[in-house]
Known about the structure:
This protein has 173 residues and is α+β, with helices and mostly antiparallel strands. The chain has one helix at 17-67; strands spanning 72-77, 83-88, 106-109, 116-122, 124-126, 133-135, 138-143, 148-153, 159-162. The model has no long low-confidence stretch (mean pLDDT 85).
Amino acid sequence: MNGLRHGHSEVSRGFTLLEAVTVIAITCILLAAAIPSYQHMLQRRQLQQVAELLALDMRHARELSVSENQLIHISYRAGKKWCWGVSRNQPCDCSGNTPGARCNIAQMDSKEYPRVLLDIAQDSAFSPGLGQVAQTGAAAFRTERGQNLRVQLNPLGRPQVCGRDAPGGVACP
């Protein structure tokens, strides 16, 4: 009889319906808890990216004011459909509504970062040849979930990202 007992056979046992439903329910509960946290993290990262991009444009504007010996402006439009632009010799309209006031160096808008809002923005300008701030400026960004940070220029024209949600949590002066 080749070692098999009569009347008994080996049966591979699978999951019961109750076990499968329990696993699915636990997975759904874990996902429901994780998704809001993940979205919070994503929005915070987008907020930080926007601030880093603005700080980079500010550094570039400062360098251009020295190398080209020209007045360089950074202009903003605050709100949900925010934008900023960098231009030579005069402020620009980053929204594109004023034909003669183009942002001829750089421009950024909310299209890539729709969950980031620009609440307050003060235009700034860099002195020709010196790279110092001729007009002090700052921008305050926030997310729909209430995270916020600022990008501001010090009197020497160096940008600083600060606020509770800034990388490293640097406090604003």
